[in-house]
Amino acid sequence: MARYYTRATSLSGFREVAAERGADLTAAMRAVGLDPGLLSRPDEQVDIAAFCELAERCADDWELPDLWLRLAPYQHLEILGPVALLTRMESDLRGALTAIIDNLVIHSNSLVCALEEEEDIAAMVLDLHPVTGPARQYLLGSLAVTKNVVEQAAGTRVDFLEASFREEERGSRGAAESWFGCPVRFGAERNALYFDRAVLDRRLERSDTAYHAIIRRYLATARHEVSGQPGDAVRAEIARQMELGTCTLENVARRLRLEPRSLQRRLKAERLVFRDLVDEWRRARALSLVTRTRLPLSQVSEAVGYADQSVFTRAFQRWYGDSPLVYRHHDSDRPAV
Predict the structure, then answer these.
(1) pLDDT above 80 (res 179)
(2) Measured between alpha carbons, how far is 282 from 286 in angstroms, rounded to an integer?
(3) pLDDT at residue 228, rounded to an integer
(4) ∠249-250-253 over CA atoms, to 5°?
(5) What is the pLDDT of residue 172?
(6) Residues 289, 166: contact at Cβ < 8 Å?
């Protein structure tokens, strides 16, 4: 399995919020196995499970259910590092956001991000590769930072229509609605930020054109370095396409600029099979949605790519030995995140 990470730039704002609360951030980081020195090494990779544990611990210990909404003002487009340069190289906002999504793995391979367009509405859809513990704060923060990224890339304030989260509301609705400036729906079918599709057509002023070729080569090299084995890149693309409901071998191969047979050969070299990787994603996402949300099982079934709930139920029972309903009941002592 891939090792999932984010960059230490995602720690931006933790020091400031800790100081406001009179809290000991160094002790909190050490408690979850993170080196406090990461605060001064922003480009270093941070294990996503430990990072999420830190965010949840700080939110609880500092009594801040809206912790990441307090961090969001410190986290802008620049936390993406070199990926942020892409906003200077595209002619419109659609191109800029698509380019950021395509290169997001350089900043973090733990986030799944997709741009969806349907009729007059556009949506930035986010999720996280399943981790062993709660990830509520990180997901809430990632969508909060997405607002910053969209507006900074567009060069103007954007009137968002709705923000939605799979997690249940836990005392952060007021802060969330204030931050996003729109209605916020908790316990939703997905994590997404919705806005007028016409915003994507906004023209951007291109700059640093003389360096575009150099920047593209650098980013291509960086993507290759962090992607690891071909299977890791395929897993990331499967996750993105499953969020959009467009995942096929042909579509994944196209996005990775490969012929389907070539992609299959590369996977075979790693002793991997495409349909098994899709099943792997479905299995992990299903467990996360069943145990960590209260979404109706019909929506869980749809979210993991099953049109027929009975087929999903049989698959879940094959994976975990119980039906989703029974598994959720037995897991009811664990609070939703």
Answers:
(1) yes
(2) 6
(3) 65
(4) 85
(5) 87
(6) yes
DSSP letters, 78-125, are GGGGGGGGGGGT-SBHHHHHHHHHHHGGGTBSSEEEEEEEETTEEEEE
Distance between alpha carbon 295 and the CA centroid of its chain, in Å? 19
Considering the chain, what percentage of its residues have pLDDT values greater than 70? 96
Strand pairing partners for 6? 46, 108
The most distant pair of C-alpha atoms in the chain lies apart, rounded to whole Å, by 60
pTM over 0.90: no
CB of 98 within 8 A of CB of 115? Answer: yes
Residue at 29: amino acid letter: M
Q: Which residues contact 47 (CB under 8 A, 6 or more apart)?
A: 3, 4, 5
Burial of 224 per CB tally in 10 Å (0-12, 13-18, 19+): exposed
| pLDDT average, residue stretch 237-254 | 88
Q: Are 308 and 150 in contact (CB under 8 A)?
A: no
Yes or no: is domain 283-330 CATH 3.40.50.1970? Answer: no
Please check the confidence at residue 210 and state whether its pLDDT lies above 90: no
Question: Alpha carbon 274 to chain centroid distance?
Answer: 22
Ordered by start, the domain boundaries in the chain are 65-201, 229-272, 283-330
Q: Which two tokens stand for residue 215?
A: 């920047």
CA 250 to each of CA 53, 115, 235, 293, 303: distance values in angstroms, whole numbers, following the listed order: 37, 19, 14, 32, 21
- Is residue 2's pLDDT more than 70? no
Mean pLDDT in residue range 4-28: 95
Within 13 A of 224's CA, how many CA atoms are on the CB side? 6
Kindly tell me if the per-residue pLDDT of 16 is higher than 90.
yes
